[in-house]
Amino acid sequence: MTGPLSRVVAWLREGYPAGVPAQDYVPLLALLRRRLSDEEVVEIARELEEAGLAPHDHADIAVSISKVTDAMPSAADVDRVREHLAFRGFPRD
């Protein structure tokens, strides 16, 4: 994993120490996708899964990515995740 992606994963581990809640997973990936390539989002999702921080197993990662690319989460979902991330110090868009 490259330096920038390692920093994102480290930040996510800090921001979600108990793991990413299932309802936040797809909105979180959608927000990351605005800053990262599809491949980078997949890599981060795999890293979170391997670390036990993702609510999905490896087989569900592709489905989650499809949800991000095919049907964006609701504005309320994105706002909830943004607020959580902002509270943890992640810069807003």
Describe the structure using short key phrases.
93 residues, mainly alpha, DNA polymerase, domain 1, 5 helices
Describe the structure.
- This protein has 93 residues and is mainly alpha-helical.
- It has one domain (3-87): Orthogonal Bundle (DNA polymerase, domain 1).
- It is built from 5 helices and no strands.
- The relative contact order is 0.19.
What's the gyration radius in Å? Answer: 12 Å
| CATH fold node name | DNA polymerase, domain 1
Distance between the termini: 24 Å
Helical coverage, percent range: 55-70%
Sheet of most strands? none
Proportion in β-strands: under 5%
Structural class category = mainly alpha
> Count the strands?
0
Mean pLDDT: 73
Estimate nothing, just give the exact number of structural domains.
1
Low-confidence stretches: none
Give the C-level CATH assignment: Mainly Alpha
Q: Summarize the helix and strand pattern as letters.
A: HHHHH
CATH homologous superfamily (4th level) name = DUF3349, helical bundle
CATH 2nd-level architecture: Orthogonal Bundle
Individual helix count: 5
Principal-axis shape: globular
What's the short version?
With 93 residues, the protein is mostly helical. It is built from 5 helices and no strands. The longest helix is centred in the first third of the chain and has 13 residues, at 3-15.
List strands and helices in order, with pairings:
Layout: H1 3-15, H2 22-33, H3 38-50, H4 58-70, H5 75-87
Helix pairs in contact: 1-3, 2-4, 2-5, 3-4
